[in-house]
Amino acid sequence: MLAELGHFALLLIVVTGFGQAVLFSPLWLRSSIRATLQGRPTVLAATGPNGITPEFNVTGPVSAPLPFDSQISRPGHYLVLPAGLLLMAIVAQAALLHAFIVSDFSLPIVANVSHSSTPLLFRIGAAFTPDGGAMILWLLAASLVNVVLAMQLFGAGQSTYGQDDDRTLFYNAMSVLGLLVGVLGLATLIDADPFLRVAVAPLDGRGMNPQSQDVLRVLREPFLYLGLAGLMVIYALTLSGLLGCKFDRRIAETLRFWVIASWVALGAAIAINAYRSYSQQAWGNWWYWDTAENSLLLPWLLTTALVHCRAVLEKTETLKGWTAFLGLSALAVGWFGVYLTRSDLFGPLNETLMKPNDSIALLVGFCAIFAGSYYLFWRRGDELGEPRPFELLSRESSMFINSVMLALIAAVVLIGTIYPLVLRWLDGENITVGGPFYVEVLVPIVVPLLFLMGFAPTLRWRQDEMWMIGRRMKLAAILSIIIVLFVSIRFIDLSPAPLIGIGLAGWILTASLSDLWARLWRQPDHGESKYRNLQLLGPRYLSMTLAHIGLAVMLAGGAASSVWEEQVVVSARAGQSIQAGPYNLQYEGVALLAGENYATRQATFILYRHALPVTELFPEIRYYPIRGVETREAGIWHGRDGDLHVSIGDRGDDGGRVVSVRFLPMMPWVWAGMILMLTGGTISILTRIFLRFQKNGVSAS
Known about the structure:
With about 700 residues, this protein is an alpha+beta fold. The protein is built from 21 helices and 12 strands. The protein starts with a helix and ends in an 8-residue tail after the last helix. About 60% of the residues lie in helices and about 10% in strands. Helix 7 packs antiparallel against helix 8, helix 11 packs antiparallel against helix 12 and helix 17 crosses helix 18. The chain folds into 4 domains: about 210 residues, no CATH class; about 240 residues, no CATH class; about 130 residues, no CATH class; about 100 residues, no CATH class.
């Protein structure tokens, strides 16, 4: 019965989404109210000079159209439709989760990806894995941001409610977002309705993919779809600005929270997925440049570019057209990435041709929505001119160049992702675009991007001078050169690629720290106290600096671990010791154990450092009988010297157990850098929320 309730809620989501698109349309509101005014008496309210609100009647035909401010009053129940959408999305998601929890195999979606022996946590996670389950989660996230956007727009509109342009922007944004929710709901019903039943239910399910039976996989999905839902809000606000021919600082201020929040959510999904792959496959063996990875990377790259361009638009009201293009394209690549991962286009060609409904509705909705939005962007392009030009040596110019390079990186990744698909459809040839292609093409773009990143925070708005730039960057240049010389002399045989990575990491780190130092200790007008100077820098500057430092730390850790990595592969017997870096591993043997839905061969290693025991590691080889799949789980130790990976294989020809040990120095820097980047974005979000509750603003510095 709950499944039928969820199906009914999904139908209501479609109807309510399209209803919101119509009811919040200012064109519809204008026409309906004008018809009312011309057809029957209407009571309008006007506020007198003494604050008294008299009532008066307007009858008969209207000789001149009333201003938009007097035609519609602020809707007292503007949250009814968004709240109804959220409630129905919660009901649909709860019904689907209940079906997985109780193992209702009359639903094909449950029977295909779950089993009665699957642990409860992974049964819940399995609800997000198939196409229909993922789309329900996306609809839930979209309904949630729909409510938040309504509260943000109409709550902020209380102080500026008399401005027609603001109200038109708000209504258009809500209308566009309702349209997106309706299209997604309709695509879910057509392509992968999760609530369809079969007449005869199987006795049990096929079981969950063992690779998906991971806590990190369960955590990744909410972050991914919250990020995509945030991109929907960015798209709605951008399209609303284009519809009203008003893309200015007001929109940039409204976009601030959503751009940073989407960037953080997508970045968190990438970080979780990276560590998940790292823990399962070991460093260097995760799925580089896979379709699923690229579909997550593409919107994050464009959102990163949008973070910088939005700041320029808010500060100087320039880069209007480029910012609008990024606002539309971020959701476009995210939507297209979802389509690629949910469809089977990268499967065997004959099997793909045999599938009649391969996410066709999702693709049709994508084509219709973004064809219309890009056409509108083309028509409005001439009206988004720059009011005041800026010089080449300026912060606007550097941030624009950075965003263009990020967009070029996204374009290369997109081409590498879809090129095998296009070639296969043209001549039937199957090829794989791997790491060498991306490295060879992206290095000439990434290196200048990282080099310019050190300059951007120190440049002045509008115009700067070369000699002043050199003076400000002198300390950073000296320190980065010292780092490169030290590493190259200490490791004379080091290849150029990691040396360039370490040098760029040192450049970004020293540039960020030297700029922070200068702002704290070389600005006497900031106040007598250095703590006061730190306060006056503002949370946005601090979050930006923290994100840049995090990127430098991550880059340094990745380059160093690739340079100083040690790998040992031996055929070990019980009691044998294995040396890797400063650690010594003693192999104790393998035990056969039973898990909840798998059987495992679990090895035991005692880890020593300088002859002192540190911990025990338990790498495994798991066998899932339901799917007949075998997986390998590595044992990992995160030490202050680096990460130690231990994995086991089958028995060798000599009867010993094949053991692979990797020591990755400075590998914790990679994860620390990711955490610092996400922390910087989180600080900006929390500060924005706090200031909103305090009814206060913050400067655009």
